[in-house]
Design goal:
By secondary structure, the chain is of the alpha+beta class. It has eight helices and eight strands, in the order H-H-E-H-H-H-H-E-E-E-E-E-E-H-E-H.
């Protein structure tokens, strides 16, 4: 959209220059200015309609995403990095990078998603490179449940930690996450959820962030949520879900 606006502005500038060079008196100049004003108004109106259309589409998609997420989720990586799936990781990696490079590839991928520090501590830790993401559930959450517009969480003992209803408020630009805000006051670190358009049916896992500071949540290498992106898998996952998820992760990270 920015490029289109820039080209339109250049086109108008060139048109205006030609008009000034060929000049037909005050009447022609006035007519040209009137046309430019009309064109500008038309462009603004068109842009406004496009934005409204995009907003409506995002709202519909955001509503659908919550419906598609219905269920309870646990942390992803302790499940798919379990020893029983070691050979599957090696086989899927070897199919892309070759058997000689498979082990190193798996170790590198694993290290990138099993970080243990977040926020300013992570920024300091990774200032010289070799970064890793912490993909755990924070705030003492063991399982999340999505049920319509309600999102809730429990701890390891099954005790309720939070439960709020949420509504869509916009898009997170960096990774295209859908942003939801709690309808309840004083929701603390569960005020905002930024959720990727992933579901068990499409990517066999989900990815999201949550917290009290939306500006900070939109940063990935700075601030209190730096180097953290929660990843979950349904508590009712199947072996096929795990196999598909591992294959997807290898394909996305190892293919050229």
């Amino acid at each position: 959209m920015k490029q289109r606006k820039l080209l339109t502005s250049l086109f108008l500038a060139v048109t205006l220059s030609i008009s000034l060079l060929t000049g037909c008196g005050n009447t022609s100049s006035s007519t040209s200015e009137t046309k430019q004003t009309e064109n500008s108004a038309t462009e603004e109106q068109t842009t406004s309609v496009q934005k409204e259309s995009e907003t409506d589409e995002n709202q519909d998609a955001a509503d659908q995403l919550l419906c598609d997420l219905k269920g309870t989720y646990q942390e992803l990586w302790p499940v798919i990095l379990a020893d029983e799936y070691d050979q599957l990781w090696l086989d899927d990696s070897a199919a892309i990078v070759g058997e000689d490079n498979a082990q190193a590839a798996v170790e590198k991928m694993s290290s990138m998603v099993t970080g243990t520090v977040t926020g300013e501590e992570a920024v300091e830790t990774y200032k010289d490179g070799n970064m890793a993401y912490d993909c755990e559930f924070l705030q003492n959450i063991d399982q999340f449940t999505f049920d319509g517009t309600t999102i809730s969480g429990v701890d390891e003992e099954g005790n309720d930690v939070f439960s709020h209803s949420y509504h869509y408020v916009g898009m997170e630009e960096t990774r295209g996450l859908y942003i939801y805000e709690s309808d309840d006051a004083d929701s603390g670190e569960f005020t905002y959820f930024c959720i990727a358009p992933d579901t068990m049916k499409t990517t066999w896992h989900i990815e999201f962030r949550y917290g009290s500071d939306l500006d900070a949540l939109e940063k990935y290498d700075a601030g209190e949520y730096a180097y953290w992106l929660a990843a979950g898998i349904s508590v009712d996952y199947t072996k096929a879900d795990v196999e598909n998820c591992i294959q997807l992760f290898c394909k996305e990270n190892l293919s050229e």
